[in-house]
Amino acid sequence: MTRSPGTPDMPSPRRRGYAGRTAQALSEERRQRLMDTGLELFGTNGYIPTTVEKICAHAQVTTRHFYEHFRDREALLIAVFETILADTRQRLIAVMLDESIPLDKRLEVAIDTFLACHLEDPRRARITTQEIMGVSPHTEAARNAVINGFADMIEAYLQTLVARHMLPARNYRVVAVAVVGAMHELQIAWLSGSLGLSRQALVDELCFLVNTLVKSGRQAQ
Questions:
Q1: Are 143 and 170 in a shared domain?
Q2: In terms of domains, do 83 and 180 share one?
Q3: How many CA atoms lie within 13 A of 59 on its CB side?
Q4: In this structure, what DSSP letter does residue 3 have?
Q5: Cα–Cα distance for residue pair 32/65, rounded to 1 Å
Q6: What is the pLDDT of residue 218?
Q7: DSSP E strand boundaries for the chain
Q8: Which of 119, 139, 134 is nearest to 188 (CA)?
């Protein structure tokens, strides 16, 4: 179609936005602000008192923009939860594949790394151990998927030790799930101050627990 003289050019989608940013870039920035706000408010005030309106006010976005990215505040909670644990998982994988760490010591380093990822920012620990609990069947499904994923990693590590003849062959699934459960509950106790331990002391006690479980498995063979 021929454009008549004086008709303005249609704006290109790539040129839309503010201060040279595209509409897509602005949308991504708003989503990140919502994620950052979810971490802050869920991790300090808690999930229940944190309304969509409070989230939007803190993130400086409209409710319309909120619902462009998340179905509801529960969806934001799950997104923040999964982002925290995805980051933790990547750090643990790096540890478990680090050949500079003796194989029989990698689980201890991984436990230290896991706790550092959470306890050095208590907001992360609060969200992953408390605020995600009991919200709905949907959040429970997300939580269980993450628990099983970390248990899979521990079990795979123990089976690697079996393959290297460093452990006897047996089913280590119970040990793996027990370790994940212990880390969950001990984080809650540590955050409340009821343990009276430094983070390093907590790591040492968890490693003692893991070694005790593994040795028990060896003796029961």
A1: yes
A2: yes
A3: 29
A4: P
A5: 12
A6: 55
A7: none
A8: 119
Q: What are phi and psi of 164, to 5 degrees?
A: -90, 10
Please name the residue that has the structure tokens 């990215």.
Answer: 69
- Model confidence over 28-72: pLDDT tens digits? 999 999 999 999 999 999 999 999 999 999 999 999 999 999 999
* Prediction pTM value: 0.83
Range list of H helices, 164-220: 173-192, 199-220
Of 39, 70, 101, which closes a domain?
70
Q: Tell me how far apart the alpha carbons of residues 191 and 122 are, in angstroms, rounded to a whole number.
A: 7
Answer yes or no: do 137 and 46 share one domain: no
Give the per-residue pLDDT at 1: 42
Burial of 132 (0-12, 13-18, 19+ CB in 10 A): buried
CATH of the domain at 102: 1.10.357.10
Residue 14 domain-assigned (yes or no): no
Token pair for residue 18? 């503010």
- Residue 217's pLDDT is what? 54
Q: Residues 6 or more apart from 43 whose CB is under 8 A from it?
A: 121, 122, 123, 124, 126, 127, 131
- For 46, the domain range is 21-70
Our measurement of the distance from residue 183's CA atom to the centroid of its chain's CA atoms, rounded to an integer in Å, reads 14
pLDDT, averaged across the chain: 87
The answer to whether residue 155 sits within a structural domain is yes
pLDDT given at position 209: 83
